[in-house]
Amino acid sequence: MGTTHLSGLDVLGNTNLRGNLTSAGQISTTGRIITTGEISADGNIDAGGDLIGKRLWLDQVGFFHNFEEKPAALADSLMKFYYNGGGTGGTQSVVESGGGIMRLSTGSTASQSSTLSWAGSMVFSNTKNWVWHAIIKVNAISDLLLEIGMYAGATDCIMFRFDSSDSSSGIKLVTENNNGGEVAQATGVNPEAGEWYDLRISVKSDNSFTVAINEETVAETHTGTIRNASFKPYFRITNKSAAQDNQLDIDVHEAWQDRDFV
Question: Which residues contact 250 (CB under 8 A, 6 or more apart)?
């Protein structure tokens, strides 16, 4: 009936309260958070379903996924709730102690792929500033096609791509605007197997953007453009022809967007 105070809450299912919900840490659930009072947290508020309260103040809206501190079973359930797995013959799972890493695996049959795409209704529109960020590594760079970033259907994208058949160019920045054809530019970064890479895309409300790898701005003279579209996160790894299990590990994945309403 009164105020519920928490230092951190993880729930698999719905949360229903009467009164205020406040937390000094993160509030996370795969279902709905419903209260007759106010919702506030010093950390993240992460709901897979609806977030319903009498008053909710937001400076930015987005998501942050790092399953390191969650039990493996819960982490795997959260991944499958937040993301749609796909591809041809590949798998998606949460691995390592405590469920710390999301892993996309092609399997050891030739010409297979594994994908993860955002399953939520949240999209990132260029009417507001938004940022996409991931920390990733791959187990091999031979016979590999890797595409990571943001897309809006089959017509628009801004993403990082590595194609082992074009390895002299290393990682490329690729954009496409309203089905107008891809524009690709080398970033000057050649990936290595087993190394972690910090990837970031920052987009402003005027559709201008910057991209960075390991906190260094790259592809500054990119001539491609993007438009105001409904972007969502996307990961894809493919073994092009060899019978080898190519794996993409995702340690951190987050995105957020400015909001000017309450």
Answer: 101, 102, 103, 104, 116, 134, 135, 136, 235
Contact 87, 234 (CB under 8 A): no
Q: What is the pLDDT of residues 115-173, one digit of tens each?
A: 999 887 667 776 778 889 999 999 999 999 999 999 998 999 999 999 999 867 799 99
Entry field: residues in the chain: 262
Angle, CA 205 vertex, CA 201 and CA 207 arms, to 5°:
65
- Angstrom distances, CA of residue 82 to CA of 75, 100, 113, 184: 11, 15, 20, 29
For 217, the token pair is 């701005």
Class of the 65-258 domain? mainly beta
Compute the distance between CA of residue 117 and CA of residue 84 in angstroms, rounded to an integer: 5
Where in the chain are the domains?
A: 4-57, 65-258
Q: Report pLDDT for 200.
A: 95
User: What is the torsional sign of CA 236, 240, 243, 244?
Assistant: negative
Alpha helices in the chain (DSSP H): 72-82
Give me the percent of the chain exceeding a pLDDT of 70: 67
